[in-house]
Structures are given as C-alpha cells and as structure tokens.
Amino acid sequence: MENKKTIQSVHADGSDGEKISANITTQSLLEEAVEIDTPKGIVNFLQKRNGTKFPYLTKHRYSVTDLVHCQRKSLYKQLGVNQEELLEDRSIEGMWSTVRGDFLHNMTYAYKWREIDMEYNVPLNDGREAMVIGRLDMYDWKTKTVMDLKSTKNVQWQIKKGFLPKLEHILQVQCYGTMFEQYIPIENLNIVYVDNSDIVTYNIQKHDLTNWIKTRIQEIENAVDDKQMINGEPSGLCQFCRYQTKCQGDGNGIEHTPMSAPKGGSDEKK
Ligand code: SF4
Q1: Closest ligand 1 atom, CA of 235?
Q2: How many helices (H) and strands (E) does the chain have?
C-alpha cells in the first residue's frame, strides 16, 4: 500500500512530494512504463559500428544520390548486380581521402538540427510505390535554410575552372527542398563546399522537383521490368563507381579503362 501514495513530484531520491492528483500515484507511473523493442535506428547504428553486415534493401528504394548520379548505376543497384572492387581501394591516399572527408563532415555539428533522415514515397505508374531516402546535413531553423555539405579538394581552383558548383549537387539540394518541405519550412537552399583551407557557400534557387524525381525513378523501374539496359552517364564520378567493368561490357557507358574489377578476379554476372 505504500506505493499507492498520491504525489505532487517524485524527487531523485524516490521520495514523494505533496499530492496534486488523486489519479496519479508512484505505482501508476511505474506501471505506465512499458518495455518495447530497441528503436530500429539505434540497432542499425550499433550494427554499423560493429561492422555487422546486414543486407541493404535496394528494391524500389533510392537515395537522393542515386537519383542525381548515373541512372545506369542506379539500375545496377536495383538489379542487385554484384559490386566490384575499386583498384585503388587500399591505397593510403584513398583511405586518407575518406577519413579526411569524415573529419570535415564534423562541420555539421555547427547546427543542432543535423543529419535529419526522411523517407519520401513516389507513386509508380502501376500503382506501386518507390521510396527515396534523404538525409539533410544541416538545417538552420532560424533562417529556414537547408545546407548540404560537400568536402572536396582545391575548392577555389575548382571554382575558377568552372567545376563547382556541380549540377548533381544543385539537383541534390533541390531534391531535399522538395522532399522535406512537407515537414519543415524551407526558404533557402545552400551548398557548402569545404576543403582543408576554404569554405565557399552557394545559395541555390528552390524548384519543385516532384515530377523530375518521379520520372527519374520510373525510367529505372521500367528498365528493370522490361529487362532493358539504360545508357550510362559517364562523368568524373565513374572512377569511384563499382560497376565499371560491367558497364564497359554493356556498352554505351564508361569511356576510360575500368578502375574497378569483379571481386576475386572472377567475371561475376547477374
Ligand atoms: S561507370 Fe560511369 S557510366 Fe558506368 S555505371 Fe558507373 S557511373 Fe555510370
């Protein structure tokens, strides 16, 4: 019966305060707490940190990066084509470049609203739905600004040469604007380019890309259903693509010697 005392507040030491409601007791508070499964996001985080491999579901699921980069590459993912090994995977330079990118990514801590995930449903012609997964790097709720962070090399040099801002980065941040607008107010889209010595920010015009996203996905889904190969969209990013040998074999794609090869040297086809 001791637990049935009504309370006003429960102190850290467990002692009860004065009564404020006949309906609230320490016992009822304890009974209201129900144990549930560990939230999926936490489990995924722990699995990633522990290197536990779990299959990433790709069927009808796309990242925003999949949409703005080579469509053939997205098709290979949808088809479950085995990824190849990048020939420079183990070079010190390659590893440092990845780690440096991770360090620079810590810049996202500049805002409390960071790394916000979202799933965006896209209706397909046959009544099914595809899903686009997006993650905002940073969001400034005071100015209602979405910011996408891009760590790269030689920012100023790339700007002078006209390599930055890249079209795919512009489309990417505009996709975020389109996808997230139904959940958070968005007035500005920014791309923030950083290297070891410079930060350069671009303000990007907002455009509703709803139809563009749907068309882009529908074309890939059609290619899967019709067993058609989509032409590659060769760019400087091909060197990081893990389907280069396969792409060269399929024609109308990569234009340089493949820098990735099937794992173990075998000719893996799917
Ligand atoms: S190698 Fe280039 S063109 Fe071919 S699938 Fe990869 S990104 Fe696309």
Answers
A1: 2
A2: 9, 8
- Average pLDDT of 150-154? 90
* CA 147–ligand 1 middle distance (angstroms): 27
Between vectors from CA 108 to CA 174 and to CA 115, what angle results, nearest 5°? 60
Of the two residues 151 and 56, the one the predictor is more confident about is: 151
**CB of 70 closer than 6 angstroms to any ligand 1 atom:** yes
d(CA 105, CA 137): 9
Calculate how far, in angstroms, residue 236's C-alpha sits from the geometric centre of ligand 1: 10
This prediction's pTM? 0.78
Domain that holds residue 220: 70-270
| CATH number of domain containing 110 | 3.90.320.10
* Number of folded domains that form the chain: 1
Give the residue whose CA is nearest to atom 2 of ligand 1.
238
**Within a domain: 22:** no
Q: What is the pLDDT of residues 160-213, one digit of tens each?
A: 999 999 999 999 999 999 999 999 999 999 999 998 888 999 999 999 999 999
Q: Do the domain assignments include residue 138?
A: yes
Q: Is residue 36 part of a domain?
A: no
Ligand 1 within 6 A of CB of 66:
no
Q: Does ligand 1 have an atom closer than 6 angstroms to the CB of 94?
A: no
Q: Is residue 157 part of a domain?
A: yes
The residue among 29 and 226 whose pLDDT is bigger is 226
CA–CA gap between residue 77 and residue 221 (Å, rounded): 11
